[in-house]
Each structure stands twice: as structure tokens, then as C-alpha cells.
Amino acid sequence: MVLSFHDPESGERLYLQVYHYYRELIMSRRLPPGSRMPSLRSCARELHLSRTTIENAYLQLAADGYIISKAQSGYYVTDIAVQKPVLPKNRKPELPPVRYNFASSGVDRESFRFDLWQRYLKSALRQNERLLSYGEPQGESDFRQVLSEYVRQRRNVTCSPDDIVIGAGVQSLLHILCPLIKDKKTVSFPAASFIQGSTVFSDYGFTVRYRSKDSGVIYVSPAHMTKWGEIMPVSRRMELLRYAGEHQSLIIEDDFENEFVYLQKPTPSLFSLAGGHGVVYIGSFSRLLLPSIRISFMILPPELTEAYQKKAEFYNQTASKAEQIALCQFIRDGHLASQTRRLKRLYSVKMKQLLTAIREVFDKSCQIQIGSAGTSLALTVACGCEGQILKKKARAKGLRLEILEEKPGTVTLLLSCSAMPSEDFLPACRLLKSLLD
Amino acid sequence: MVLSFHDPESGERLYLQVYHYYRELIMSRRLPPGSRMPSLRSCARELHLSRTTIENAYLQLAADGYIISKAQSGYYVTDIAVQKPVLPKNRKPELPPVRYNFASSGVDRESFRFDLWQRYLKSALRQNERLLSYGEPQGESDFRQVLSEYVRQRRNVTCSPDDIVIGAGVQSLLHILCPLIKDKKTVSFPAASFIQGSTVFSDYGFTVRYRSKDSGVIYVSPAHMTKWGEIMPVSRRMELLRYAGEHQSLIIEDDFENEFVYLQKPTPSLFSLAGGHGVVYIGSFSRLLLPSIRISFMILPPELTEAYQKKAEFYNQTASKAEQIALCQFIRDGHLASQTRRLKRLYSVKMKQLLTAIREVFDKSCQIQIGSAGTSLALTVACGCEGQILKKKARAKGLRLEILEEKPGTVTLLLSCSAMPSEDFLPACRLLKSLLD
Predict the structure, then answer these.
(1) Cβ(A272)–Cβ(A156) under 8 Å?
(2) Three-state SS across chain B?
(3) pLDDT in tens, A294-316
(4) Cα–chain-centroid distance for residue A140?
(5) How many CB atoms lie within 10 A of CB A295?
């Protein structure tokens, strides 16, 4: 080996000379992928250089991806010289595109005024100075101010902006709330389908139960008691509050889809019925705007605000500042209120159209559960195969389904009307029927 | 009391008649704020109506904010008739605007091309169809693909897009990671200043220690070992990996500010040195783009991907989908790379300018600690008062400071050059000096 590693004229540090030498060998594949590099000791001896110099060169080669170290074995040439872009592992077989999606919790594509939202977000992005800094940990203060007025008008929830915490989705809020109420130890959910909520609680060591009032925390969703939109009657709300008050349980009221209660005036929120004590109120915008906008908020009762304020600075805000600024002005200008009215009207009509389509296709051979809120209904039909097999068969035909329950000979599906255009209801129901035999 | 509550002609349901009657009394302030409503029993007797009818009316009044229930006492009229918009509690005394901010971790206002980012976000917002649905729990797949190439090129980190998890900030990622590694029980941080990270771990029941290698989890930030940008030398990195390997400790490598290592080639990442085993790699964009853009990512080693995949569906994505789409294309088009180069050049110059300003103002009466990375330095000066008092005095003059440490007679400040324009360095240092006596 003839190498000019000692030429002080080259101006390059020694280890870099070694580095470049090997890089060239590797990229030209004279040292092919997988070959073992000489040991530090033998290389140092051969090149008449110190071991440290060689080690520095090898480390830089490793840092740049040319070689890789294997424990107790040495360095090996990577496949960098023949490398192709990394592809995702476990690629699944190709499926046809989804034509009809009964399982989607997305929103109706006609319902959202993208142009309008774009305008608000653009205007938020012009607030350069504000976007140059991190957001307030609790959420932007003008946005919290607007939210406190919004919940007072719509849900009779009286609170100060200081009681409101913003986060990127309900889970982000629970990640702040759970450590504050850890000593409650047990939590009750209305059903096993609240998996996103119960996951966070069990991650924090809570024992999760279902419909068990004897729990330290009672998580309820009064306008969404079941996936098909049953709502909690006022008498039951009062009873729950009394019980929780007597047992010192904390109620978490996830007011999901309270905007889509069609058949009656929206029932009062637990938070307002309780006068703001013993209840954490949670609200979201994903069903009113776009599911992809990750903004939720919680309102803490006085018992928890002090404990929260002590830790507030330790949690970074998760929601996008630009989106908070945009949504703040969007609400101020009355667009959220009109969007809510539009959606409520739209979904109320679509639910009826879906019902009509089901009755036409299935006649009397089905059972339908429908609540007074929401965008879904439960359909029970006779089915010759298992639910999971039905789901796969349907998907292969471009129909996406959600199975709620199965019993021998029947299956209960959750059909959502929100994302599917109403002209698809009839063909989608016909396709479903053809798969059941 | 003469009331026509029994008039069937009115067409209004009885409870609503009672509701409207009281609402009128309250809004006209004939029932003034704070007055107690008649008990259900006495009201029912007086109006010759059932108790249930009265209760329904009261509940609707409460739901709409006219009355409020107090436990074991009855209903009281709220101040809705005289209500003004809710104002934040505990308003702090007004302070002058901040003229010089040495404590800011914001970015240089000249450095970010708002117009460019606006264009990318606008183009993301045009992807209507994509924004109508919830994001992938793990993060958008095209974005993860781009990230996997980005870390391979820049940090020699070889991973599949399936190993990458996106989240709205580092804490959101730790909220997913901590439950997966709960059995590790102890975690070591480099210093108490990593409060956002250690908070999440202690929320999950971990014992938090500092610089204690005998821990189940070792959290390190190799390019940001101290707030003034000391970096971990390669020899120490190798030693840490060996130690962690022998003791089965998991390393979390928060590669914060690795882009701003000025004085040498960036040192190799622990993840790449370890060949991807036993290390979780965390990266962020808040220092490269805008702090208000909440996007971070973690790369899981093979030991953890399976456990994660089992739970992936239970965690909703926290980062904004529109911002993920925008950033994906922004990186593809090479703008992140050029933004990084621009910032690195800029901060390297600004650090030198800040140093010059300090030397000019403080001469030999100060001590300066400066690392080979980052955007801050530590300045120790003689100070006649306590740190917190200095901080308040400075703030009253429009100068924001961060105290790192204090000893009798001296105080150590962390001065950041990133958000302050360089022409302010000299006047800001002079103002600081005038406050020290």
C-alpha cells in the first residue's frame, strides 16, 4: 500500500485523509458492501498512523453512512454505494379504491368552505411577529377569551379564559389532566369504544371500567352516549351530578357532537347544571370544521385550576399557533355559528335520506337503532358469515364498513352519513345487501 | 299571581310557558340577580302545576344561563341581565413593552421566509379531499418517507418510514413513548433545565435523576448538553453507548440544535453510532422554521416498533395535517436544507457579534462560557442584588433576562442571540451593566 498520509503539504488533517481514502474505495465498490474493514490495530500498523487517527476516520465514515459498527466484531462496509431510497416495510396488497365509505368519521365535502378557512389562515400567517415565538402553554389568550364567550352563549358554560386550556385534540388535554387527578385511581367510560380516551388513562395507571359509577373519575359524553347518537336525558344528568357530588367523583364531560342534537333543544351541559363545580368540560372542533384541524379545549373547575397553574409552564402548547389565531377570528366573525347551523341542517336531512334508503333496500328484514343526535345509525341485519369476513368482502368491493357487534346469524353495523354524498346511500345499501347472503 | 298556564290554546308546552314567564321576570330585573327562586314544591303548589313541569322549566332556565343551582340550597338568579363579557382573572400590572429580549428562544425575524412558507401552506390547503379526513395516527406517510430520507442524508440515520412517529412537539412523542417503556422505571436527564421532558416522565411514575448513568432510560441531547451549547464529544458518545448496551439502558437522543454546531463537523448521532439499536432518535423543526409550527418526530429502534404498532391506532395524531403536508413538500424542494444553511451562518455571525459587544461593555469584569453549538452563551457578572430582583428590575426597563445560576455576589445569565437583532446587542449589554450595581 503506497499512501501519502504523511504529506504535510496536503493541508488536510490526517484522519480526513484516511476518511477520503476509504470513502473512495467504498463508493467505487472496490471495497464492496458487506466487506469487513481492517481492524483499528492492523490498519494503524499498516499505515504507520496512530490508532486514534484511524478511529477518528472510521467514526466519521460511520457517521456519514459508509461503514457500520457491529458489536464485538468490527466495522463493515454498508450498501451506501448501491443504495436505493428506503421503502416502507410490510407493504400491504393493493386494494381497490374506496367507493362508498360508511365507516368514515370525516365531514361532508360540500359542507366546508375551504376558501373561507384559507383566507383566515392566510391572514393568520401574516402575523409574522406573533409566529416567531412559541405559543402560550395554555393556548393563545385572545383565542381563550373568544372561547369563553362561545361556550357561554352556546352551552351556558360560565368560565374565565384562565380556566381554559387548549390542546391538539382531546388526548393532548387528557395528558395534562390525568397527572392532576392521579389520586382518583379509577375511571369509568360509557363503553369500550372510547378507546382513545381510556388508553390515556390506563397509560397513567388508572383502572378503567365501563358504566361503573363507583369510580374516582366518570367520563361521559352526554350527546354521544352510544355511537348511534343516543343522548343522556336531563333527569339522568341530574342524577349523575348528585351521585358524583356525594361520592366526590370528578366528571369529565366530553361534549362531543352536542351541536348535532336534532330532535329537541340541546340538553344543558353537565358543567352548567353543576354550576361549574366537579366537572371538567371538553369541547372540540374536528366535527364542525375539518377533522385535520387539531384543536380542542378543556375548561377546568376551580378545584383544579390552581394545581394546573403550578404546572402550566412545564407543558408546551401542542396546537398550531397559526390555526389558533385563524380559528379565533373565524369564531369572532360568526362563521363557526353559521357553519354549525349549516351542518346541523345538512346532517339532519342526510340521516333521514339514509334511513329511507335502508328501508327501501332492506324492507322489514333489518333492525335500526337511531338516537336523537349525531351522524350515524346502527343497522342489524342477518348475515351468513362472520363480521370480519363481511368487512373484508365489502372492502374488496370498495365498500368500507364498521362492525359494532355480532351475534350468531346477525351483524350490527355502524353506518355514518357524514362523509358519504347522499346520492350514494341507495347504491351503497344495495351493494351491502348483495354481500350478506 | 294570575297566570294562564292552563290555556291549551296557547299551543306552547306548559314547562315552556313557565320558562318564558320567569325569563321575562329575570331579564326585566323584577327578579334581580342573586335572588332565590321559589322552591320546586312551593312553585308547583302556587301555579297548580306538577313538580316535574316546574323542574323542566327550571332546568331549561339553568341551561340557558338565567338561574344557577346551588347544592342543598336551591336555584338563584344569575347576573345574566347585567352581564358584561368575562374578563381574565388576576390581571397582572402593566409592564413596559420588551425592548431587548435576551431570554427568547424565538427565531431571528429576518431569517424566516414567511412568503415561501405561506405559499406551501396555501398549496397544502388546496388538497381538500385529504383534509376532510383525520390524519394517520403515526403521521402522514409521504411526510414520513421524506423524513426518512432527510435523516439519512443529514444524520446518517437509516430507518424505514414505518419506524417514524410524528407528533406536535417532543412532549406529544414522549406521551406515546413513556407507556411503551414504563418498566424501565428510572430516567436520567443531563440537567434540571430539561423540565418539559422530565415532567412527562415523572407524570408517568418514573423516578427522575440527573446525570446518573445507572438509569433504565438515559435522556441526552448531544448537541445541547448545556444551555450554552456544549456538545458531547465522540469519545464520550461511544462510552455512553457501550455503557448503555452493557446495562440494557435505553437512550433517548434528543438531537436538538444539532444543526447549529459551528466549530466542527457535526458529530455523529448516537442512533447511527449504535447502528439503530437501543436508541430512540428525536428531531424537531421549531428552531429551523417557526417555533409556532408544532412538528417533531421520533424514530423507534426495532425493539420498540412492534409494541408501538400494537397501540398506534389508539393515539390520534396531534400535529396539524395541513402543516405536515406543507412541510413535506418544503423539504422535498430543498428549502429546509437551505434554511438550515442560512440560519447556521447567521447564528454563527451573531454569536461572535454578541461576544464582541459583551467584551466591549464588561471588559475583564465578566466570565463567559460558550460551547461549539447553539445560539446562547452564559455570562457571569458581579451583581449587588439577588437574581430574581435583577430580573424584575431589568424587565421594568424593557430588558428580559434568564437567570441560570446565582452565587453570593455573582449571577450567571443565559444570553440568547437568536431573536434579538444584532444592532441591539451593544445597547442591551449597556443597559444590563447599568442595572448590576
Answers:
(1) yes
(2) CCCCCCCHHHCCCHHHHHHHHHHHHHHCCCCCCCCECCCHHHHHHHHCCCHHHHHHHHHHHHHCCCEEEECCCEEEECCHHHCCCCCCCCCCCCCCCCCEECCCCCCCCCCCCHHHHHHHHHHHHCCHHHHCCCCCCCCCHHHHHHHHHHHHHHHCCCCCHHHEEEECCHHHHHHHHHHHCHHHCEEEECCCCCHHHHHHHHHCCCEEEECCCCCCEEEECCCCCCCCCCCCCHHHHHHHHHHHHHCCCEEEEECCCHHHECCCCCCCCHHHHCCCCCEEEEEECCCCCCCCCCCEEEECCHHHHHHHHHHHHHCCCCCCHHHHHHHHHHHHCCHHHHHHHHHHHHHHHHHHHHHHHHHHHHCCCEEEECCCECCEEEEEEECCCCHHHHHHHHHHCCEECCEEEEECCEEEEEEECCCCCHHHHHHHHHHHHHHCC
(3) 899 999 999 999 999 999 999 99
(4) 21
(5) 25
Cell triple for residue A50? 496512530
From CA A236, how far away is CA B348, in angstroms rounded?
Answer: 65
- What pLDDT, on a 0 to 100 scale, did the predictor assign at position A92? 57
A23 to chain B nearest CA, in Å? 14
CA-based nearest residue to B138, from B319, B336, B326, B329: B319
Give bridge partners of residue B220 from the DSSP assignment: B253
Cell numbers at B104, concatenated: 427568547
Q: Which pLDDT belongs to residue B92?
A: 56
- On whether the CB atoms of residues A242 and A251 are closer than 8 A, the answer is no
Q: What pLDDT, on the 0 to 100 scale, is given for residue B93?
A: 62
H or E stretch at A41: helix A40-47
Contact B321 A60 (CB under 8 A): no
The three-class DSSP label of residue A157 is coil
CB contact under 8 A, B275 and A70: yes
What's the mean per-residue pLDDT of chain B? 87
The SS3 assignment for A370 reads coil
A344 residue type, one letter: K
Confidence of residue B234 (pLDDT cuts 50, 70, 90): confident
Q: What is the mean pLDDT of chain A?
A: 87
pTM of model > 0.80: no
ipTM: 0.74
Q: Which pLDDT score, from 0 to 100, does residue A71 have?
A: 67
Looking at residue A37, what DSSP letter applies?
P
B197-220 as b/e: b if 16+ CB within 10 A: bbbbbebbebebeeeeeebbbbbb
- Tens-digit pLDDT profile for residues B235-265: 889 899 999 999 999 999 999 888 888 766 6
Task: Outline where A363-386 has alpha helix (H).
Answer: none
Whether the CB of A91 is below 8 Å from some CB of chain B: the reply is: no
Question: Given this model, what pLDDT does residue A201 score?
Answer: 97
- How would residue B120 be classed by pLDDT, with cut points 50, 70 and 90? very high
Tens-place pLDDT, residues A24-56: 788 777 788 888 888 888 888 877 788 888 888
Q: How confident is the model at residue B88 (pLDDT cuts 50, 70, 90)?
A: very low
State the Cα angle at B23 between B18 and B26, rounded to 5°.
130
Residues 186-245 of B with CB under 8 A from A: 195-196, 199, 203-205, 234, 238, 245
CA dihedral A187, A191, A196, A198 (to 10 degrees): 20
Interface test with B, best of A294, A309, A330 (most B CBs within 10 A): A294
DSSP A225: S
* Mutation target vs A (from B60, B90, B111, B131; most A CBs, 10 A cutoff): B131
Q: Can you tell me whether residue A128 is helix, strand or coil?
A: helix
Q: Tell me how far apart the terminal alpha carbons of chain B are, to the nearest angstrom.
A: 77
Burial A173-201 (b: 16+ CB within 10 A, else e): bbbbbbbbbeebebbbbbeeebebbbbbb
